[in-house]
Every structure is written in structure tokens, then in C-alpha cells.
Structure prediction request, 248 residues.
Amino acid sequence: MNIHRLFDEKSDIYAKSRPHYPKELFQFLHSLCSEHNAVWDAACGNGQASVDLADFFKEVYATDVSEQQIKHAQPKSNIHYSVQQSEKTNFPDQFFDMVCVAEALHWFDHDQFWREVKRVLKPHGVIAVWGYSWFNIEPEIDSVIKTDFLDIIAPYWPKQAQLLWNHYQDIPMPFSPINAPELVMEMEWTLDQVFMFLHSWSATRRCMDDIGDAFFHQAYDKVKALWGGSENIKTVKMDTCLLLGRND
Prediction:
């Protein structure tokens, strides 16, 4: 499987459909650092975390292996985007006050990535890793999405996704642990926003390539019947995790 291809395809949809991280997360990350000169957003995707980090750090260096993701990334004057592998970058030694990985750690070669983080992170710098996976809306809607969507795409998930579903507990972090608060992510979305998010998943696209997209439209129609008007707004609660460590 070409992992780069999964994120190159439909990167415009990906950019429009990613959930937003809460401002409180970045305020907390800021509080962990004694200096706020430079932060690395590894595997930044469309820059959804980079733009928030830019409010709390002087310079943000955001990298991704996908040229298409970087092409659709959100610009900001103090964000420096580049196409690079997270496991081997051109950054100087001991350059960053913090390294962040949002919704991407499961894709890495972890041993190589940790070595790179230790190289580029300042002494006592912070590594912050977070992610989200499943979500809940309302019991009836959740049931339809599971039966008519999630169960169908289940065979098409890459094996790395299980690491995220387990909240990264199976990936040892060679840093001094920092107690992390609960990461709360709740979106106020329309029906179309929910299904744009579902469409952006790599497993969805692989499933569509294999069996077509009729199942997707069927699931949409069934959920629409329960939604109460496609323009209605509902709260979407994400299953999340946050891991923190210090380079001591």
C-alpha cells in the first residue's frame, strides 16, 4: 500500500473536512514550554494544527510527505511549510521548543521518528501527540452509521489505524511522561459536514475504489431520514487521546 497516495488523493476534501482542535489544547501546550520560539508540526496534513500553533509560537515549521496536502495547507505568515519525511528532516539539532504530532503518529516508523525528535528537540523540550478516531452523535444515527457505513469499510482500514484506536498505548515514547488533561473535541456539524468527514477517510476511498460508492449514498440517505433536515446542526463528540513527554 502506498501511504503517500492515500493522503494525496482527495486532499481538497481532506482540507475542508477535518475537525478543529480546541483552543484550550494549544493554550495548555504553550504553558508547558519555557520558550516559544519554534515548534515543529510533524505530518501537518492541511495545517489544521499549524494555524493554531502559530498563535502561540513565534515560528511554526510544518512538514508532510504529501505534496498535495502541503498544496492545500492553510497559509499564515509565521508558518513554514515543506515536504519532508518526519523520520528524517533538514532541521538543525536542538532547534525546537516543542514537537507536535496531530492525528499522524500511527503512520510513522516510530524508532526512527523518536531519534529524529530527540535530535531536533531542545533539552527539556516537549513532545505532544494527539489524535481522534470514532465519534458519537445520537444513538439512532450512530447505529445506522455503524451498520451501513463503518461495518462496510472495516476491511479497508490500514493496520496502523488500530494504534490510534488504542490511544497510542502500544507505542512506547522514550521521553519523561507529562500528565495530560482530557482532550475534549466536539464539533457542531450539519449532515453534509459529517459525511464529508467520512468521505475523507482513507478506508472510505479504498472501499469505494473496490466496490463503488452506492453504500455511501445509501448510508447518507438513511441518516438524513433521522437527521431532521440536512441543514440542522448536531453535536459530534470525538473519541480522543493526548500524550505528552519531556526531553530530559
